Amino acid sequence: MALGRGLGELLGEVEIAYEKGNKNDYSRKGSIVELDVNSIKSNPNQPRKIFDEDKLKELSDSIVAHGLLQPIAVIQNEYDSYTLISGERRLRAHKLAQLDTIKAIILDTEEFKLRELALIENIQRDDLNIIELAYSYAQLINEHNITHEELSKKVFKSRTSITNTLRLLQLTSYVQQLLANDKISAGHAKVMLGLNEAEQKLVADSVVGQKLSVRETEKLVKDLKTPSTKKVHNNKKSTSTYDFNPLKNVLETLKNNDLKVKAEKNYFKIEITSQEDIEKISNYFRNTL
C-alpha cells in the first residue's frame, strides 16, 4: 500500500477488507488477521479516557456469544508489535473476556495519520461525552491544520454544530466537568458563555441545586448581566461604642425602681411594660431636674 493516500481511501479499505474476511491470504496488509491481544498497544492519543464498565461487560459478553463483527484496525511496529488505530472498546472487551486473539486489519499509513484516524473513529462511532468531543475536534483542527468546514466533511457533522461544540471549551473546567458528567446539559452550558469564572460557578451550582430549566437559567444569567438601576442607600448603622459610666447612677436608680434598663455601644434603652413604668420614669426625671 502506498504511503500518503487520502483518509477516505484508507477507511474505504477497512470496509473492503472486512467484506473479504473469509479469505485466507492474511499476509497482505489490508486483510483481516488474528493477532495476539498482548501484541497490541493502545493508541497513546486515544481521546476517550473513561469507559463505562457495564457497557464494556455487555460488549464482552456479546463478543463471546456471537464473535467480533467488526475487526479493529492497527498499524504494525517493529518486532511483531502493533499500535491500535481504532477499536479501543473492542480490544478491552476481548481482554475482559480473556480471549487470546482478536480480528484486526493491519493498515500501512503515515505515522502522522495515526492520531487523526483514532480521533475520527471515536467521533463517528463511539459515545464520547460532549466535552471529549469538543477536545477531539480541537485536536484535529490544531494538529492537522484543517478548517471547521473541512472537519465537518471528515466527521459528517455540520459546521455550525462543530463550531458550537468547540465554544464549550471556553467554559471553566468546573462547568466542563459538570457537563461531562451530565449534571448540566449543553443548553445550560451555552447560556453561561461570556460569564466570568465566579459567575459560571454560581449559575452552574444553581442549575444543579435548584434543577433549573434552560429558560430559568437564561433568566438568571440575564439578571447577572443587567446591573440593578435602583438607588442603593447606605443603611449601615454606627458601630461606635460610648462610655456610659457618667450614667451609672441613673441606671442603678431606674433598676431599683424595677425598670428594665440597658445601655451598650451606641444606645440607651428603657423597656416599658406598663403605664406604671412611665410614671416611675416621669417621677425620676421630675425629681432630678
Description:
The protein is α/β, with parallel strands linked by helices. It is built from 13 helices and seven strands. The protein folds into three domains: 7-111, Alpha-Beta Complex (Conserved hypothetical protein from pyrococcus furiosus pfu- 392566-001, ParB domain), CATH 3.90.1530; 118-225, Arc Repressor Mutant, subunit A (Orthogonal Bundle), CATH 1.10.10.2830; 245-283, no CATH class. The protein has a five-stranded mixed beta sheet, with helices on both faces. A two-stranded antiparallel sheet has the order 6-7. A hairpin with a 2-residue loop joins strand 6 (260-264) and strand 7. The protein starts with 6 loop residues before the first helix and ends with a helix. The model is unreliable at 1-28 (pLDDT under 50). One of its GO terms (molecular function) is DNA binding. InterPro entries: Chromosome_partition/occlusion, HTH_ParB/Spo0J, ParB/RepB/Spo0J, ParB/Sulfiredoxin_sf, ParB_N.
Task: Give a short overview.
Keywords: Chromosome partition, DNA-binding. The chain has helices at 7-19, 53-66, 88-96, 113-125, 130-144, 148-155, 159-167, 173-180, 186-191, 197-210, 214-225, 248-256, 275-288, and strands at residues 32-36, 40-41, 72-76, 82-86, 101-107, 260-264, 267-271. The protein is of the alpha/beta class and 289 residues long.
